[in-house]
Design brief:
This protein is mostly helical and 127 residues long. Helices cover 72% and strands 0% of the residues. The protein has 2 domains: 2-68, lambda repressor-like DNA-binding domains (434 Repressor (Amino-terminal Domain)), CATH 1.10.260; 71-119, no CATH class. It has helices spanning 2-19, 24-31, 35-43, 50-59, 71-90, 92-103, 106-119.
Length: 127
Amino acid sequence: MGNDIDVHLGKRLRRRRRLLGLTQQQLAGVVGVRFQQIQKYECGANRISAARLWQLSEALEVPVGYFYDGLSTARHETIGAVAEGGEMFARKETQDLVRAYYLLGERPRRRLLDLAKSLHGGEHVDA
């Protein structure tokens, strides 16, 4: 669950940085890190320490709490999706389908995925 929080904080960081029209390089310069570190924060690959979060909040002119806004809602949605997906992937039928899918070559897999999407009625299905 910790990674979900890191991803949420990173999304909020990116949103605010873009809103202010700052590049990753500019923000990095203000807080004293390389722009790659800002990239890692924004995608949730690296955890933001409390001290760094404070620096970022100062640089982006928001309270520290800004980064946590909406977190409880996001966590509840994630927990629900994991529970639902966990039940689905526990079925033998689903496991058999996934195994068979990965035994196919890349081109037949893509065609099968396209077929499944078309059978779903044209609605967006995350791949």
